[in-house]
Specification:
The complex is a heterodimer of chains A (150) and B (416). Chain A is built from 6 helices and 3 strands, in the order ααβββαααα. By secondary structure, chain A is an alpha+beta fold. Chain A has one domain: Sufe protein. Chain: A (Alpha-Beta Complex), CATH 3.90.1010. Chain B folds into 2 domains: 151 residues, Aspartate Aminotransferase, domain 1 (Alpha-Beta Complex), CATH 3.90.1150; 255 residues, Aspartate Aminotransferase, domain 2 (3-Layer(aba) Sandwich). Chain B contains 15 helices and 15 strands. In chain B, helix 5 runs parallel beside helix 6. The longest helix of chain B is centred in the first third of the chain and has 21 residues. The chains are: A alpha+beta (150), B alpha/beta (416). At the A-B interface, helix 1 of A face helix 13 of B. The complex binds pyridoxal-5'-phosphate. Pyridoxal-5'-phosphate binds next to helix 5 of chain B.
């Protein structure tokens, strides 16, 4: 595999993007996501109004993979119902585990976040890619009193 | 630079022969292994010796009267004697086998520290400690009410001896420090630190995990009270380590763990404990690891500790000189004085984990992260760093390939 399939244009651009990188004082929930082994450290904030995620943002530091993944996540869930965000988490984690491979489904649901598909071939970096998604999963579980995704 | 290149071409030992002893170099790939401070590779001799132990000398050491039990006991006794000779302890009874340096340092914390520290006392450690010689002292401070203080670093990443002298006092009950930093490569003047500690009546604990693999250590010459190291950072297997302790202190302190082999008489309500070192070795010990460690020591001494130290210093100096040629790179490594072959650095604009991933793709194995030194990284103002660390089986060519791969990092991370 070529490294440029991991460090693709989409990932490099999003890793540097500041579009979703801001504090959210009126957030419904903010959670910290931290990888003690590598030091990726983010705070993910979302605002929920009538079961819809009306705003999503993050602050923090980490590698290109973790930062791009967090930024793309924020862009993807903004404006979506909480239940749909939960489905997106399942699809993303399924993709990373190599369980969901159908490109048409992945592109339809995950849009640019499909760029992380090749991470499944790099086990050492999987934790970076899923950090924000696991953090969102935790927020949703707490807010809705439901189980976290496997 | 000429002297460095000369040393790298003529190391003073048979580098080709040495490299033929390490099976990982035969892997398809190949792998350029520059993560020796995390753990070294093992030569075939060590693996073969352990394999022979388990084939022909395997019994429970110190238990039972049969031949194989005796063979295992003998293997243990000989390995201990080998370690004692290697670091020149006065007695074999001063060598305690542990799982690793962390366990050795914990032993000192749970026995000496909990027995002796009290409110008002000071524990003095340094800014560059590995968590293994840091969190244990935090624990001791919390348990006993002693105060934990830190010796800071100079702008050249050396231990600040003036700061040390200003902080040590009659309140200082223990000075526990790394004789070689696993991140910076800094090697403070261990003998001087110990001398000053003695003048104030403080116990001295040396974390020598990154020293023993590289430099000849003589515990009587250093005059330290305790010294800890790990076998796996010096060609021996994962899971065997050593705590050296002065007999007069070991005789006085409490046992660490309780159970088989560490006792003398066991009554219903109380027991008496075995002599040192057995008092500190509860349960069946890792004799396979011990013979591996003894063989690793044979190997290091065959190559020659002086040869190793000089050659590794040349590798590190050459690498620093090459890194300095690259743009937008910060190097965390002393430029003056004695230092070990570990060099931390950051490529500005590229996170260490991305750097390590890209290098791995080129077959170059380095470490990225905080290397179990979060307080040091806070001091450096970095969440994480890259680290290369050398062993005597590395070569100049490998450093050249590493530097070449670093150019690709700039390319892929679009740093221009
Ligand atoms: C300076 C230093 N001290 C202590 C340790 C702990 O060694 P171990 O993990 O083998 O217990 C290490 C190893 O990472 C080290 O580099």
């Amino acid at each position: 595999m070529d490294l440029r399939q991991i460090y693709s244009q989409i990932i490099m651009e999003n890793s540097r993007s500041n579009r979703h990188r801001y504090e959210m004082p009126d957030a419904t929930a903010t959670e910290r996501g931290y990888n003690p082994s590598c030091g990726d450290d983010i705070h993910l904030s979302i605002k929920i109004e009538d079961d819809v995620i009306t705003d999503a943002s993050f602050t923090g530091t980490g590698c290109a993979i973790s930062q791009a993944s967090t930024s793309l996540l924020c862009g993807l869930i903004k404006g979506k119902p909480v239940t749909e965000a939960k489905e997106l988490i399942k699809t993303f984690l399924g993709m990373i585990k190599g369980e969901i491979t159908d490109d048409s489904i992945l592109e339809e649901e995950l849009e640019d976040a499909v760029a992380f598909k090749n991470i499944s071939t790099m086990p050492q970096r999987v934790r970076c890619a899923v950090l924000a998604w696991r953090t969102l999963d935790l927020i949703i579980a707490k807010e809705t009193g439901t189980e976290m995704t496997e | 630079m000429d002297a460095i290149l000369e040393k790298l071409t003529n190391p003073g030992f048979d580098l080709e022969k040495v490299r033929s002893d390490f099976a990982y170099l035969e892997l398809e790939g190949p792998i350029i292994y520059l993560d020796n401070a995390a753990t070294t590779q093992r030569p075939n001799q060590v693996i073969d010796r352990m394999s022979d132990f388990y084939r022909f000398e395997n019994g429970n050491p110190l238990r039972g009267a049969h031949r194989l039990g005796a063979a295992a006991t003998e293997a243990m006794v000989n390995s201990r004697a080998r370690v004692a000779k290697f670091i020149n302890s006065k007695s074999v009874r001063e060598i305690i086998f542990t799982r690793n340096a962390s366990e050795a340092l914990n032993l000192v914390t749970y026995t000496w520290a909990l027995d002796n520290l009290k409110p008002g006392d000071q524990i003095l450690i340094t800014r560059m400690e590995h968590h293994s010689n840091f969190v244990n002292w935090q624990f001791a401070a919390q348990k006993t009410g002693a105060e934990l203080s830190f010796i800071e670093l100079t702008s050249d990443y050396q231990l600040d001896m003036a700061d040390y002298k200003s902080k040590i006092s009659e309140r200082t009950k223990v000075v526990a420090f790394s004789a070689a930093s696993n991140v910076l490569g800094t090697m403070p003047d261990t003998r001087e630190i110990i001398k000053i500690a003695k003048q104030h009546g403080a116990l001295t604990v040396v974390d020598a995990a990154q020293l023993v693999p590289h430099i000849k250590v003589d515990v009587q010459d250093l005059d330290c009270d305790f010294l800890a190291f790990s076998g796996h950072k010096m060609l021996a297997p994962l899971g065997i380590g050593v705590l050296y302790g002065k007999a007069e202190i070991l005789n006085k302190i409490s046992p660490f763990q309780y159970g088989g082999e560490m006792i003398e008489y066991v009554e219903d309500q109380s027991s008496t404990y075995a002599e040192i070192p057995y008092k500190f070795e509860a349960g069946t010990q890792d004799v396979g690891g011990m013979v591996g460690l003894a063989t690793a020591i044979d190997y290091l001494e065959d190559v020659g500790l002086t040869n190793i130290a000089e050659y590794e210093a040349a590798l590190a100096d050459y690498c620093v000189a090459e890194l300095e040629q690259l743009p937008d790179l910060e190097i965390y490594h002393p430029r003056q004085g004695v230092k070990g072959p570990a060099i931390a650095f950051n490529v500005m604009g590229a996170h260490p984990h991305d750097v390590a991933t890209i290098l791995d793709y080129h077959g170059v194995a380095i470490r990225a992260g905080h290397h179990c030194t979060q307080p040091l990284h806070r001091y450096l103002g970095q969440n994480s760093t890259n680290r290369v660390s050398f062993a005597f089986y590395n070569t100049k060519q490998e450093i050249d390939l590493f530097i070449e791969a670093l150019h690709d990092v700039r390319d892929i991370m679009q740093l221009g």
